[in-house]
Amino acid sequence: MTAEQIHDIGRRRAWVIWLVALAVYVLAVFHRSSLGVAGIIASDRFDISATSLATFTVLQLVVYAGMQVPVGVLLDRYGSRTMLLVGLVLMTAGQLAFAFSSSFAGAVAARAVVGAGDAMVFVSVIRLVTIWFLVRQAPLVTQLTGLTGQLGAIVAAGPLAFLLHELGWTRTFALTSSVGVVLLVGVVALVKDSPYARADVVAVKLRALAQSVRTVWGNPGTRLGMWSHFSSQFSATVFALLWGYPFLVQGLGWSTRGASTLLMAMTAWAVVSGLVLARLVARLPYYRSWIVVGVVVAMVVPWTGVLLWPGVAPTWLVVVMAFATASGGPASMVGFDLARSFTPPHETGRANGLVNIGGFTASLLTMALIGVVLDLSASGGMESYTLGDFKLAMAVQYLFWTLGVVQTLRYRRRGLAHLARVHPGSVEQMRAGKPFVHPGIGTEGV
Predict the structure, then answer these.
(1) Nearest-CA neighbor of 153 among 55, 37, 47?
(2) Which residue windows are transmembrane per the record (predicted)?
(3) Are residues 182 and 255 in the same domain?
(4) In 396-442, which ranges are E strands?
(5) How far apart are the C-alpha atoms of 130 and 126, rounded to whole Å?
(6) Of 204, 221, 240, which closes a domain?
(7) Is the pLDDT of residue 9 over 80?
(8) Quick one: 268 and 354 in the same domain?
């Protein structure tokens, strides 16, 4: 039985709902990025080492990545509105607890709660886009969602640094947590799950879920998307969320204002490069994974220059390195586009969850290893780390770039062979510049 449509799709109500949900996503990105400029203050406040400082963001990302698949199931069962509300409550409570935490253990627990709330937001917004907008509108709105969400990172890089300087730790984080209360009211009043009179509730048993995840993971396209995400996303995340600011200020001797400005400029560049990459991906679907590899190479070259430069690298080279790194964020979105070509429509949520895990796994491992290397180089805390210590620690990234590129090229070959076998003509279609969308709902060839 088809549900009765009671609201227009793609009209004013849809845009209002999307804007409210988008505001929640911007706030989630802000909370996720807030430790980027507060890392040095946090190390002093809690008297912790680099390894312990990395624990904040690593644990937050572990929680985020680990919840992707379960959140997808809960989303299908309870809808976006409920998940946005739960996510807001968790993020608000976690950030408020973080504001008043005086112990390292308490602060880590608070960041874990923030990560749990963050994990529920993006997929909830994307589900609203899918339901409330026309098929021809959805790709543009999805792209706008990702790009606009980066405003949260800009606010975390600039205004948050100013507030920390003017108001101090507790008042700053308490003030930012209060934004969640305002958005809670907005979600309750304005967000609706569906334009239809009723929405079917999907109850998925854990055993069936586990089996379905194994099936989706067995698809080489899912792994191609995951390794593409793994290769390109982690460097930008590590730089923006934790180690970029200390590297610039403590290592390269930049001013706090200069470092904050560069972090904001990186976010602006990510928007520009994202628009360029989106056009390239649309015109060259056969070369999508090569586009990802090209962006990774573009990151590696200036990073090598900065790390091998005798003493402090010149400003222009650091800026080039930072902008190249920022391009990794938009490049990682190609992983979701790759997975879509290989995945039946009813499995795209689980496939996207597995793709999303790739970059965040690489990010948290890189963050942790950088902290370990810094502590092994100098055990006196943040103030004792020299430029040489930071250069050695940042070299950890090469391990993950190499692994990611090798696996991306490996699964590119497997993925193309899979498509050629299961969907004859699909590879030739992509070579001709025409996108291929998986037409089936089964698990053939997996």
Answers:
(1) 37
(2) 15-41, 53-75, 82-100, 112-135, 147-165, 171-191, 234-253, 259-278, 290-309, 315-339, 351-372, 392-411
(3) no
(4) none
(5) 6
(6) 204
(7) no
(8) yes
393 lies in which domain range? 211-446
Say if residues 65 and 59 touch (Cβ distance below 8 Å).
no
- CATH of residue 322's domain is 1.20.1250.20
Mind listing the pLDDT tens digit for each residue in 175-229?
888 888 999 999 999 988 877 765 444 455 656 656 677 777 888 988 999 999 9
Q: How many domains is the chain built from?
A: 2
In order of 323, 343, 377, 394, the CA distances from 303 in angstroms are 11, 35, 20, 9
229 Rama class: left (phi>0) / alpha (psi -120 to 50) / beta: alpha
Residues whose CB is less than 8 angstroms from the CB of residue 296 and which lie 6 or more positions away in sequence, other chains included:
231, 232, 328, 331, 401, 404, 405
Q: Mark whether 228 and 117 lie in a shared domain.
A: no
pLDDT in tens, 246-269: 899 989 999 988 998 898 888 889
Q: Burial letters for 405-443: b for 16+ Cβ neighbours within 10 Å, e otherwise?
A: bebbeebbeebbebbeeebeebbeebeeeeebebeeeee
Residues 198, 281: one domain?
A: no
- DSSP letters along 321-376, please? HHHHHHTHHHHHTHHHHHHHHHS-GGGHHHHHHHHHHHHHHHHHHHHHHHHHHHHH
The residue type at 81: R
DSSP state at residue 435: -
Say yes or no: 220 and 171 in one domain: no
User: Tokens standing for 221?
Assistant: 């396209």
Q: What is the pTM of this model?
A: 0.76
User: Within this chain, do residues 21 and 130 fall inside the same structural domain, yes or no?
Assistant: yes
The answer to whether the beta carbons of residues 156 and 33 sit under 8 Å apart is: yes
- Among 204, 237, 252, the domain boundary falls at 204
Looking at per-residue pLDDT, the higher value among 2 and 274 belongs to 274
Same domain, 173 and 95: yes
Amino acid 146: pLDDT: 75
5: β partners: 196
306-341 pLDDT, tens digit per residue, is: 999 999 999 999 999 999 999 998 888 888 778 777
CA angle 425, 431, 435 (to 5 degrees): 75
Judge if 161 and 217 occupy the same domain: no
Phi and psi (nearest 5°) for 19? -65, -40
Q: What is the pLDDT of residues 140-177, one digit of tens each?
A: 676 677 778 877 777 776 777 788 878 888 888 888 88
Residue of 133 and 173 predicted with greater confidence? 173
* Burial (0-12, 13-18, 19+ Cβ within 10 Å), 141: buried
